[in-house]
Design a protein that fits this description.
Layout: E1 12-16, E2 27-32, E3 45-49, E4 55-60, H1 75-85, E5 89-98, E6 108-117, H2 144-161, E7 167-176, H3 184-193, E8 197-199, H4 202-211, E9 215-224, H5 237-268, H6 292-299
Helix pairs in contact: 2-5
Bound molecules: the ligand CSC[C@H]1O[C@H](OP(=O)(O)O)[C@H](O)[C@@H]1O and adenine (ADE).
């Protein structure tokens, strides 16, 4: 599959998490399953049209039948395949635990910070195992402009839905390795560290989106109180499943309400401006020791810097 021209580029992408394996009110256009230099994505990517005809891309993070555990999600192939389709703005939906009493299950959140508690078993860079070195800026791990933009439309969409779902912002999410949930001691420790939410999926997705110069935000949907609450059972998958379906319905409503506006904002506004071009100064200068095969591989995600 060769790189898309601007005319058939799909600017907006959505990654669905646990419980969110499709979106609503879209017209199916085609399904694509590109083999990237990092393998195949979690599942074929659905290209579908909004009522206006604008096309968006949807990918189920754990695969259509939820066959990839968080540690095994082929995140590099996912981000590379979306980038090839033309995606420049990406919303990841995720089921998360809450580390705060005032963020109950059912709440939606737009985190702005991440604490990395993954264990180094997930490939987290497109530059890994190549002769090209890059250090992407990650102080603000989510696209600041995108997060700021999303706050209003999501709040409005939740109000319109009328189920009383609240949106909270400026939260810090801990990303743990899993697949087992945290111990009570870990859950308490994350609270002391300043964590507000916890999941197993936002990394390396957010790092790879940054390396691919895709503006990325996480819409975190709270399913449980994790394991820190005294005199309360620690989180179980059964507890998570209780809230998953309602959260997925609300996620579909939110996506259905905001995607057209998001497309217009990405096309005409400045929400992509901080990430676009950001890798130019993050990549170490070209040297004779860099292997051409590595540069060819990196061209797949960053054609602007590796075209020769
Ligand atoms: C099903 S409970 C744990 C599982 O759910 C979340 O997945 P996702 O972020 O894809 O919604 C969490 O990160 C864990 O992977
Ligand atoms: N408590 C929790 N810990 C990690 N990931 C989660 N996903 C949903 N709830 C979670």
């Amino acid at each position: 599959m060769s790189s898309n021209t601007d005319e058939d580029a799909v600017l907006v992408g959505v990654i669905g998490g646990s419980g969110l394996y499709h979106l609503d009110n879209l017209t199916f256009v085609r399904s694509v399953n590109p083999e990237t230099p990092w393998g195949f994505p979690s599942s074929p990517i659905t290209i579908a049209a909004l009522p206006s005809g604008t096309q968006v891309a949807f990918l189920a993070r754990h695969g259509q039948g939820h066959t990839f555990s968080p540690s095994a999600v082929p995140a590099r192939a996912n981000i590379a395949a979306l980038k090839l389709l033309g995606v420049r703005v990406l919303l990841g939906f995720s089921a998360v635990g809450s580390l705060r009493e005032d963020i109950p299950p059912g709440t939606f959140a737009l985190p702005t910070q991440i604490i990395d508690r993954t264990k180094g078993v997930r490939p987290a860079s497109f530059f890994e195992d190549t002769t090209v070195v890059a250090h992407a800026a990650f102080g603000d791990p989510f696209s600041r402009r995108l997060v700021r933009w999303l706050e209003g439309p999501i709040t409005q969409a939740l109000a319109e839905e009328g189920r009383g779902v609240k949106l909270v912002t400026e939260k810090c999410i801990v990303c743990m390795e899993g697949p087992q949930f945290s111990t009570r001691a870990e859950s308490h420790m994350y609270r002391q560290w300043g964590g507000d939410l916890i999941n197993m999926s936002v990394l390396p997705e957010a790092k790879l989106a940054r390396e691919a110069e895709i503006s990325y935000a996480l819409i975190a949907t709270v399913t449980d109180y994790d394991s820190w609450r005294p005199n309360t059972d620690a989180v179980t998958a059964a507890e998570v499943f209780k809230t998953l379906r309602a959260n997925a319905e609300t996620s579909r409503h939110v996506a259905g309400t905001i995607l057209q506006e998001l497309y217009a904002a990405a096309l005409h506004g400045d929400i992509l401006s901080e990430e676009a071009g950001s890798m130019q100064s993050s990549i170490m200068p070209r040297s004779a020791q860099q292997k051409q095969a590595d540069r060819d591989k990196l061209r797949y995600v960053l054609p602007a810097y590796f075209s020769d």
